[in-house]
């Protein structure tokens, strides 16, 4: 709900915005208490074990959402995936593993999950030329800016580096700001012009 409110301020009339809720599940990092989560999070360091099964299942769920929109008459190359934190991580992972050609990815305050599972060098999939807007606060205590920096370097080795934009925001923590939302709006309007 929070993100649908944030998007309300930057909506373009010709674009449909879908904000799916993550399912509620126990999260290891949260002492196994149930919370909305796309997949389990075991730790927040670069060498933490990752929930590979959960990440792959969540990506399949996003691909099913894309399929539904394609059935509704929206070509997949007119779809941008986006998300914040775990949702941004899931958006990146899904875009890089799907066989559906997409218009772009908006990845906010996040990282690339299962990064070791990707080949060294460029990917061969349909989204090797995909446009990515990656944004991060320079004071993020939860997902440190270094995760964003490492992710952008990995992305530039996998897809056309000219299509990867990395923006940082001074003083921003694990949240969003007006300047970031304006950058998101500009990206969406550029990659989904009216037809």
In a nutshell, what does this entry contain?
This protein is α/β, with parallel strands linked by helices. The chain is 34% helix and 16% strand. It is built from five helices and six strands.
**What do we call the CATH homologous superfamily of the domain at 55-189?**
Alpha/Beta hydrolase fold, catalytic domain
Q: Which regions contain 5 or more consecutive residues with pLDDT less than 50?
A: none
- Which architecture of the domain at 55-189 would the CATH scheme give at its second level? 3-Layer(aba) Sandwich
**What is the alpha-carbon Rg in Å?**
16 Å
User: What is the H-and-E element order?
Assistant: HEEHEHEEHEH
**Percent helix:** 25-40%
Number of helices: 5
Distance between the ends: 28 Å
What is the 3D shape?
A: globular
Strand content: 15-25%
Major sheet summary line: 4 strands, parallel
Secondary structure class reads alpha/beta
| Nearest-integer average pLDDT | 95
Total number of strands: 6
The first-level CATH class of the domain at 55-189 is given as: Alpha Beta
Strand order of the largest sheet: 3-4-5-6
Q: If you consult CATH, what is the topology of the domain at 55-189? A: Rossmann fold
EC number: 3.1.2.22
Main location: membrane
Domain Phospholipase/carboxylesterase/thioesterase: 1-191
Family: Belongs to the AB hydrolase superfamily. AB hydrolase 2 family.
Describe this structure in words.
This protein is an alpha/beta fold and 195 residues long. It has a domain at 55-189: Rossmann fold (3-Layer(aba) Sandwich), CATH 3.40.50. The chain is 34% helix and 16% strand. It contains five helices and six strands, in the order αββαβαββαβα. It has helices at 2-8, 52-71, 86-97, 145-158, 178-191, and strands at residues 24-27, 33-36, 80-84, 104-108, 131-137, 164-169. Strands 3-4-5-6 form a four-stranded parallel sheet, with helices on both faces. The chain has a two-stranded antiparallel sheet with strand order 1-2. Helix 2 (52-71) crosses helix 3 (86-97). The longest helix has 20 residues, at 52-71. It is globular, with a radius of gyration of 16 Å. Homodimer. Its main location: membrane.
